[in-house]
Amino acid sequence: DADVTQTPRNRITKTGKRIMLECSQTKGHDRMYWYRQDPGLGLRLIYYSFDVKDINKGEISDGYSVSRQAQAKFSLSLESAIPNQTALYFCATKQPNTGELFFGEGSRLTVL
Amino acid sequence: DQQVKQNSPSLSVQEGRISILNCDYTNSMFDYFLWYKKYPAEGPTFLISISSIKDKNEDGRFTVFLNKSAKHLSLHIVPSQPGDSAVYFCAASDHNNAGNMLTFGGGTRLMVKP
Fold first, then answer.
1. pLDDT tens per residue across span B64-94
2. I need a surface site. Which of A37, A57, A81, B93 has the fewest CB within 10 A?
């Protein structure tokens, strides 16, 4: 079983719809992250959380919200999806005291 | 403005030869650098890292070199193998930054031909 699990893996939706991407981890890490990957732009940080009570905006948080339901769960929501949110989304946890991130397998979202 | 740049979107190398992937950064506060490898339909996985107090770190076939004055790092893979074909991301962080977040480059797609 993967240490960081994302659902759904693939989703096609329409403009204006609400979408939630879910992430759960078994690594016991406090810090969790949501990134999106676009061709040529690498991975850009959307939101991050240091613990259940600590949520922070990343580089590109507009149009997104998050919820840290428990240490192991961190979900990303698009309240009203738009086509330029079509991307590959990754959840990650962070190893304490190092810079190493552990990524999920990704959620590919297409907004028509 | 991207603080971490990988100027080569793709690189093709013959099996057995050396692969050199380059990365440039602009933020002089970055003090820790990492390389991640990503296969299709999988998340990125950690490959190798280097602290700014070093100029070289080696792990088997993989070596990362850091040139702080030039704000440049490179990943050397020797000998290259077909299984190394993947997208490689360079990333950097500033340990003095409260968030200690990673900033990623745009990635380089490496193709190793048999």
1. 999 999 999 999 999 999 999 999 999 999 8
2. A57
